[in-house]
Amino acid sequence: MNPALQRARKRQMVIFLLVCSGMVLLLGRLYYWQVLQSHGGYNLAQQASEEHTQNITLYAPRGIIYDSQGRVLATNVVRDDVYVEPHQFSIDHPVNPQDDLDHLLQALRQVLPQLSEERLRADFATDAGAIRIAVRIDPAQSQALERLRLPDVFLYPRTWRVYPGGTLAAQILGYVMQSDTTSQGMYGVEGQYNQLLAGQPGSSTVETDLQGNPLTVGINTQQQPVNGADITLTIDSDVEYMVESYLAQAVQDLQAQSGAVVVLNAKTGAVVALAGYPTFDPNRYGQYYNQTGCLHTEQVYFNPALYCAYEPGSTMKAVTMAAALDQGLITPDTTLEDHGCITYSDAPEVCNWQDTPYNTETMTQVLIHSANVGASYVAHDILGVNRYYPYLERFGFGQTVGIDGPEMAGYYRQPCGHGWSPCSKDWSMSDLTRQAFGQSILATPLQMAQAYEAIANGGVMMQPYLVAAITKDGHVTTTQPTVKRRVISQQAALLLTGMLRQAAVLGFAQLAQVPGYSVAAKTGTATTQGISADQTEASVAGFIPASNPQFVILVKLDRPQKHIYGSTAAAPLWGAIAQQLVWDYGVPPDLQQ
Amino acid sequence: MNGQRRSRNGLRQQGGGARRLAGRWWAAGGRRRLAPLFLRIGPVALCLCSVLLISLMAILYLSQLGQAVTTNQQIQDLRNQQVELQRENNDLVNTISQEQSPAYIADRARRMGLVPANPQGVQVIVVQGTQGNREQP
Q1: pTM of the model as a whole
Q2: Secondary structure letter of residue A396 according to DSSP
Q3: Biggest CA pair distance of chain A
Q4: Is residue A357 part of a domain?
Q5: Chain A residue numbers touching B100 (CB-CB < 8 A)
Q6: A324 closest CA partner among A450, A492, A447
Q7: Would you call A236 and B72 a contact, using CB atoms and an 8 Å cutoff?
Q8: A524 and A375 both lie in a single domain
């Protein structure tokens, strides 16, 4: 063979071998990265996947809460948090970082003057990936920052719960406690219906471009979020505001410690208003953490109408009369001899206020005079244990009402050996004679309102309710008024209504009168053993118009100082609320002037 | 050789036309004709055609991809717009609700010089057989 050709062949062979060995090396390296290291060690496959796919949590918007007129009580807004990226800033500005930082801080502080320069400099001195420097900035500030397009500064939107009415119905609504990733309803409707309102977050896995924008092509799996349900309450904002305003004014004017008002629809049991004072602003709930209501026994977030049990005092006499009337043991004209005090062989003496004797008085007059003697006489001498306690149970005392939200059951002692549960071994006849006029029994304002609602509704107790409708995924579930039970006969209810009308006109509830309307109401002034007798809980319970009851109203003021009695402290407030109610709802007057 | 034998066997089984075509193929001295459908096409032309075809496919693919990217951008813009509009809507709902709230209305009324009606000054006239005009909750 030609030597030149031979050399050429050799060169070709060398080149061929070099190429082959290069290929082998490359294949080996490829095998190392693609096979050996793809799932172990660096986990390259996962890293590559993470580089261009993104898992996004799709937050479900929390449901909106409306009042009965469709006005928004609680809704959501989106506000931005501001973050800076110190680590990225140090990479982006290797030369003259101080000058660039000065410019950046100046621009930031022009939009967000509340930011401290020292704090910002300290933040940028760290090597952190991202630091939040401001929370929930105003929309105008967000727009200004977006226009500036500041490097290494970004906005992160977050949804916040807002209550457009401020303190309006705060103790009914509760509030939402929010962290960076979760929100939790607390107290009231927000707490009770948290799961329903919150909905369920969804998730999305998408391929993204270099800027992190999701691509329409490639992997795209999505689990849609389930929006929170909207809730419509039975509350009327106008009435609620009126009641809250009047209550706040009364508490301040009378220098009371606290107060509560309940307004129920007499026919359906729907809650029209439920007010407490002091109250709070759910938009700034954190500022109220050390404030208390309900005679300083509970935090201000609790609804006192549901959670502040008290001795109802003389308003309880209507229940005692109801029990006796229903069993046909008395009529409104049944008489007794009232010498100011009554003595019992098995119980301590019971006396009227200031031991006032009323001599021969009818049962109606017992209510007009608010005579303790008459009430305890009915409970002890006419009803007795066996015929009295079943009625306390029927009227719902000692049991939760079953309305939405945390609620106190109240308490009263009843004797053992009758099959009643719970019973108290400490019970004595003294409990019976005092419970007849509202001592030795604890009831919430809502329980008392419920008892009067039964009287107003012809002896039929309706289930009080606060949620009128729940709208979820377009389906509306409406709450229908529900009969709880018949408590007394219609005849007994009518007779008692007549007695309460007389008590309102001729008795201590005269300041609760509304021109043009008949009122059935009873005042109560309760004192607590162990404290001064002038530290009272003044209340009025009743309904309007008495001839065709539309609204049941209960007013309670805790420890009023200027006027201490139900007749002088609570009755004017009851009358003002009742008057506004009948005007607002266009209830026709039933009395000729 | 086996292949040839199989081919000849195969040709025998076919008609006369097929036999003539096979004859031409052998007559060409085993020169391989790569062009389908009996088109006479040389290697250069084949290369050019392939390049053209691949280019065409690439152009089509790239234009499709370009359209997808553009559409993706449009979708992103629309999504951003939707988010922004939802945000504005939430703000407007909140503003309307604030301004509809009784406290706000009462405050505005006071600022305008209005005062609450005095209940003492209201004259109630009873008209028999009338009904309430507002639905109760």
Answers
A1: 0.83
A2: T
A3: 152
A4: yes
A5: 71-72, 164
A6: A492
A7: no
A8: yes
Q: Do A299 and A426 fall within a single domain?
A: yes
Number of separate domains in chain A: 2
Optimal mutation site among A241, A267, A462, A582, interface B, most CBs of chain B within 10 A: A241
**Domain assignment of residue A25, yes or no:** no
The verdict on a CB contact (< 8 Å) between A213 and B94 is no
**A392 & A487 share domain:** yes
Where do we find the tokens 């009415």?
A: A165
CATH number at residue A417: 3.40.710.10
**A141 and A277 in a common domain:** no
Q: How close A233 gets to chain B, by Cα (Å)? A: 9
Same domain, A394 and A254: yes
Q: Which residues of B touch A576 (CB under 8 A)?
A: 119
Q: Are A312 and A418 part of one and the same domain?
A: yes
Residue A35 lies in a domain: no
Measured between beta carbons, which residues in chain B are less than 8 angstroms from residue A267? 136
Interface with B, mutate which of A587, A590, A591 (most B CBs under 10 A)? A587
Q: Is residue A434 part of a domain?
A: yes
β-sheet with A220-223: strand ranges across: A53-58, A202-207, A220-223
Q: Is B94 on the interface with A (CB under 8 A)?
A: yes
E-strand stretches of A171-257:
175-178, 183-186, 202-207, 220-223, 230-233
- DSSP annotation string for chain B: -HHHHHHHHHHHHS-HHHHHHHHHHHHTTT-----GGG----HHHHHHHHHHHHHHHHHHHHHHHHHHHHHHHHHHHHHHHHHHHHHHHHHHHHHHHHHHSHHHHHHHHHHTT-----GGGPPP---TT----S---
For chain A, 593 residues long, give each residue's pLDDT as a single digit of tens. 688 888 888 989 999 999 999 999 999 998 888 777 776 666 777 777 777 788 878 888 899 999 999 999 999 999 999 999 999 998 888 888 888 899 999 999 999 998 998 999 999 998 888 999 999 999 999 999 999 989 889 998 888 999 999 999 999 999 999 887 788 999 999 999 999 999 888 888 888 777 777 776 666 788 888 889 999 999 999 999 999 999 999 999 999 999 999 999 999 999 999 999 999 999 999 999 999 888 888 889 999 999 899 999 999 999 999 999 999 999 999 999 999 999 999 999 999 988 999 999 999 999 999 999 999 999 999 999 999 999 999 999 999 999 876 789 999 999 988 888 888 888 999 999 999 999 999 999 999 999 999 999 999 999 999 999 999 988 999 999 999 999 999 999 999 999 999 999 999 989 999 988 999 999 999 887 778 878 899 999 999 999 999 999 999 999 999 998 888 999 999 999 999 999 999 898 888 65
Regarding whether A353 and A484 lie in a shared domain, the answer is yes
Asked whether residue A154 falls in the same domain as residue A276, the answer is no
DSSP category for residue A301? T
For testing contact with chain B, the best of A211, A213, A244 (most B CBs within 10 A) = A213
- One-letter amino acid at A411 equals Y
Look at A468 and B134 and tell me if their CB atoms are within 8 Å.
no
The range of the structural domain enclosing residue A373 comes to: 237-584
